[in-house]
Fold:
Amino acid sequence: MSMTMSRQASSRAAKIDDGGADDTILELRDLRTYFFLERGVVKAVDGVNVAVGRRKTLGVVGESGCGKSVTFRSVMRLIQSPPGKIVDGEILLHRKDGDTVDIVKLDPRSRQLRDIRGAEIAMIFQEPMTSLNPLHPVGRQISESVLLHQSMSRRAALERAEEMLNRVHIADPDRRIGEYPHQLSGGMRQRVMIALALSCNPSILIADEPTTALDVTVQAQILDLMRELQSEFDSAIVLITHNLGVVSQMADHVAVMYMGRVVEYAPVYEIFHNPKHPYTIGLLNSVPVLGRKEDNRLVPITGMVPSPMDEIRGCAFAERCPDAMEICWEQSPEFKEHEPGHSAACWLHD
Ligand code: SF4
Structure:
C-alpha cells in the first residue's frame, strides 16, 4: 500500500468519543483543506476527525501552522478560494431538533450558510479589528448582526446591542454603543467582539487565540467572561490556542494537532496527567508548569516541523520524536482510541 493511501485510511478509521453521540453538536470527519499554490499543494488540514460536545469546551492546541485555525475557518467556510479548498470530508452540525447539516455541502453564498454563521456558529479572533468595522459605531455593528438573523425593529435591535454590552460588563453601555472601535481599549474591543458573537445566541462559539494580544490581567477577565457566558447562553466553545495554561483552565476535552491532523484527543485531565503522544509530551515539557520539580527543566521540542508541501512517509513527527522506531518511518500510525475517550496516533501504543 502506498504511504499516501495508508495515511488516508488511518484518518478515516479515527472515531472520537466525546461522551456519547447525543451530546455531540459538531463533528468533523476526515476533513481536508488544501491550498493550491504555484509552488505546490499545502495540505493545511489533512484528515481531521474531532467532535465537540454540546455545552462543552474543546481546547485545540499545537504549534503555529499545525492547521488549527484553518480547520475551524473551514467550519465557518471562511477559506479564501482560490487558493484554498475543502477537498474532502464532512462538517456535521447536529441541531437540537435532531436535524443534521453537512456544512461542506452548502453553497458559500447560500442563505442557509449565512444563517448558520452567526446564528448557530460564531467566531471571534485574536485581533478584534478583523471582525469590527472601524467606520461604524459598535452598537450599530451588533444591532445589524442581530437584524440579519432575527426579525425585530431597529430600535429593539439597538436595545439588544446595549443589553449585550452590559452582559459583557462594559460600563456605560448606553454611551459605548455610539463609540467607534478605535475609541475602545484592546480588552474592551475583545468584549465587544464577544458581545457581537453571542448577540444571536449561537450554539457554538469558536474563539481563535482570543486572549493572545491582551495583557495577563485582561486575559484572565476575558476567560472568566467566556466561562460565565457559556453557562448563561448554553454554548459549546472551541478554544484555539497555543497556551496550554489557558487550555488547562477552560477545556473539557483537548485536541492536539500536528501537521494538519489531530494526533491526540482526550479529556483535559488525561492530556495533562496521562499524555500518550510524544508530541503532546513534548509540548507539556516545553512550557512552565506550576509545581514542576527543579530537576524537571523545560525541554524544547527539537527539530523543525516538516514543510506542509512535503510528501511524508510514515509518522509526520518521526524526525522530531525521541521514541521513533523503525515502523514509524514506514507507516503512518492509525488515530484510534487506546483508552475510553482517549485517542492517539502513535505506534508506541499499538
Ligand atoms: Fe514517535 Fe513513532 Fe509515535 Fe510517531 S508513531 S510519535 S515517531 S513513536
Summary: The radius of gyration is 21 Å.
